[in-house]
Each structure stands twice: as C-alpha cells, then as structure tokens.
Write a sequence for this structure.
C-alpha cells in the first residue's frame, strides 16, 4: 500500500509540531492547591440565568448540595467537596464513584435523594448555601421548595 505524498507530508508535519509543544504543567493533586482563591471573592455577586428565572449568588458557597446526577464530579475536580449528593445506583458511600472518592478525602457527603426523588428535609438539614441541580429534572414546584 502506498501513501500519497501529501498525506505522508502531513503526518511528518503533525509529528514535528507535536514534538515541539512543551509538556503540560503538572496537575495539582492536593485539594488545597485546587481550592478557590480569595481573589475569586471579587467576582460576586453573580447572576445565573436558569430554567426558572435567575439566581443571585452573593458570595462563595461553602456548603453545596448537588441534586443532579453528575455535579459532584465537577465540584470535586475543582477541589470542592459537596455536603450532599444524589445517588445514581446505590453502590458507593456518599454517591461518590471510585474516580471521585480520592478527591473527597475523608469526607463522605450525605446522600439527599436519587434519580426518582429528592429528600427536601435532608437537604434543609444540611443548611446549604448553594444547591446545584443541572441534571435533575426538577419541576417548578421542586425548585420553589429548594429556593
């Protein structure tokens, strides 16, 4: 099998360019290194437009509950351990799958519901200052209760 000269030239150029790119900076594995900085506090207040209107976030949230099915992974990747999570399949403590457990350290979030139902009383008991519900399917009534 013969390669056309233009394809071969393109591949050589691709390998050359890839070899010239400096290595990526190491990824921080220490949650303190990934924690939001105090300078981030200058970004508030923030208005978030969402399905049921808008929400004003007046400061950095310290106690976050996730009502959707995947938000906890994004928070953990940012160095934030939620106080409450939503269960997918009833398999892991705090609804944190193996890839996320190390990021949470010794903290095990409280499970506040599953894909079928939200436990409003459990959420209220956690006294969250922010509730994320991106992939939750909340109704207007559920939103009003959480708000």
């Amino acid at each position: 099998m013969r390669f056309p000269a233009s394809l071969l030239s393109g591949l050589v150029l691709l390998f050359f360019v890839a070899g010239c790119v400096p290595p990526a900076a190491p990824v921080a594995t220490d949650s303190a290194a990934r924690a939001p900085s105090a300078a981030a506090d200058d970004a508030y207040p923030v208005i978030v437009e969402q399905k049921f209107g808008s929400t004003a976030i007046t400061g950095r949230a310290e106690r976050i509950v996730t009502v959707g099915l995947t938000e906890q992974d994004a928070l953990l990747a940012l160095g934030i351990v939620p106080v409450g999570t939503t269960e997918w399949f009833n398999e892991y403590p705090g609804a944190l799958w193996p890839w996320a457990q190390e990021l949470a350290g010794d903290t095990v979030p409280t499970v506040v519901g599953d894909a079928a139902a939200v436990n409003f009383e459990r959420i209220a008991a956690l006294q969250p200052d922010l509730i994320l519900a991106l992939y939750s399917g909340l109704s207007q009534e559920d939103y009003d209760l959480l708000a």
